[in-house]
Each structure stands twice: as structure tokens, then as C-alpha cells.
Amino acid sequence: MTVFFPLDTARLRLQVDENRKAKSTPAILAEIVKEEGLLAPYRGWFPVICSLCCSNFVYFYCFHSLKASWLKGNQSAASTDLIIGIAAGVVNVLVTTPLWVVNTRLKLQGSKFRNADIRPTNYSGILDAFVQIIRDEGVGALWNGTFPSLLLVLNPAIQFMIYEGLKRQLRRGVPRELSAAEVFIIGAVAKAVATTVTYPLQTIQSILRFGQFNESTCESKLLSSLRIIKCLLVNRARKYGMLGLFKGLEAKLLQTVLTAALMFLLYEKISSCTFRVMGLSNNHYKKH
């Protein structure tokens, strides 16, 4: 996440700041550095890392615990991976959404927006952001964007389904440990497909987490979460066309694909080493 963090910064600016023109990722980053300083692309790095550690722990722990309980030593299937991935994703969303709301606000604090309607914030850190959000917007604001996040559990679910499926194909007939290059490639392919399919929802998720979307464009403040998502999607599509729903996708693909591929590579290597340290055989590792 640290290596590719500036790409995530570029993506978030394009999603939230509607008046910022969509340019290539290097051009967006050059603008940010020129206007806000050399370290601006890394603004909000610490809260994001904290959220990422919590989120990955919750997701992977739930995924493999559920998988072990469900399969009980039997061979897995793509449909099983999908169901388990969705269940683990739901738990992850409900537990970690407040952290992601806070880090979204902190990442965007101090940014020079093209949209004059965006109000500046003044959070001194993670805890202060929690306190101010609860005080000014209520506890429920910490779960802004929960509904699109729940829909987005399909992202890691699709990602893991494709990843596990490709891994089984490569191991078919010859049980073996995958090479670093193979893990990197199938991780990148899996994440690229999942990200592209779900990107419009990710844009709405960022807008809701930022907490400065214009509710007056909808018919009523009492609209359900589904109606709000539909309203925001339709308004963005009307103003900027269908491509407006994919604004920032280039940066997102670069960041998530490279991050996911590197994460899977390290994950497989660390898992393999852990099993060996625990005294378990390679066959036990491959079986699971």
C-alpha cells in the first residue's frame, strides 16, 4: 500500500472532486505535487495503513476460518470460495467501515479542490476525526457508505473466486507450490476484473464516506440507501456521461492490481514459510 499510495490519492481526488478534469494519472499527481507540495500524494498514509491492517486481518481471518470449517479437509470449488468470500466481506465491512470513513476524510483534508462547494475540515488526527464526526454528524455518520460497501463485498469475492480458480488450474494434475511470477500474474488478473466490474459503486462509496454529497439533488432525505446510490449514479451519469462513472479508473486499476498482485505474492510466501515453521508438510499446505 505504501509503494502504490500516490495512485490511490489520484483516484480519490478524481472520484470526489467532480470539477477536476480527468487526465492521465501522472498528470493528476503532477498537479497535486505542484499545488500542495511533494508529500501531498502521501497525505493520510498512516490512517490508511491502520485501516488496511485491520481490514485485511478481519477479512483473511474470517475467509480462512469459514473455509476450514466448511470444507473440513475436502477440495474447494469456485462457488464455495465465492460464498465464503461474501460472508467474510460482510463481516469486514460492518467492523471496519468507521475506520475507512475517517481515513477518507483525513486523506482529503487540506486538498485544493476544483469544486468550491466542498467544505474544508480540520481534524488533528484519527481520534479527533472520530470525535468531530460523532459530535457534528452523529454516530451513524461513521457508517456512511456501508450499503455500497456491502454490495462491494462482491469485489474481493470475485477476486478470490478467480484467484483460487486460476490457482487450481495451474496446479491441476501436479500438486506444487506456485512460482512468484505465477502468483503475481493471477493476482493481478483477478483484481483487475473485480475492480472494473465494481468501480461505479466504489465511486459512490467514496462520495458517501466523504460526507459532502448534495442530498438536495434527491427527492427526500428519507430515501433508502439503495435510492441514494441510484440517485448519485444517475446524476453523475447525466452530468458527465457513462465515462463519468469510471473517472479515476486508470489510477485505481494501477494501484489495486499492483497492490493485490504484490499482496498475494507475499501472502503465499509468508503462508508457506509459516506452515514450514509450524512443522507442517508441503502437502498439508497445498491441500488447504
Automatic annotation (TrEMBL):
Organism superkingdom: Eukaryota
Q: Where are the transmembrane segments?
A: 44-62, 82-102
Might you report a single GO cellular component term? peroxisomal membrane
Sections of the chain in a coiled coil: none
Pfam families tied to this protein: Mito_carr (PF00153)
The answer to keyword Ribosomal protein applying to this record is: no
Location relative to the cell: Membrane
Q: Would the keyword GTP-binding be found if you checked this record's keyword annotation?
A: no
The residue intervals holding the Solcar repeats read 1-69, 76-169, 178-273
> From the UniProt record, which GO molecular function terms apply?
ADP transmembrane transporter activity; AMP transmembrane transporter activity; ATP transmembrane transporter activity; coenzyme A transmembrane transporter activity; FAD transmembrane transporter activity; FMN transmembrane transporter activity; NAD transmembrane transporter activity
The membrane topology of this protein is:
Multi-pass membrane protein
The alphabetical list of record keywords is: Membrane, Repeat, Transmembrane, Transmembrane helix, Transport
**Signal sequence range:** none
Question: What family does the entry list?
Answer: Belongs to the mitochondrial carrier (TC 2.A.29) family.
Q: What is this protein called?
A: Solute carrier family 25 member 17
| Source organism (scientific name) | Seriola lalandi dorsalis
Lineage, highest ranks first: Eukaryota, Metazoa, Chordata, Craniata, Vertebrata
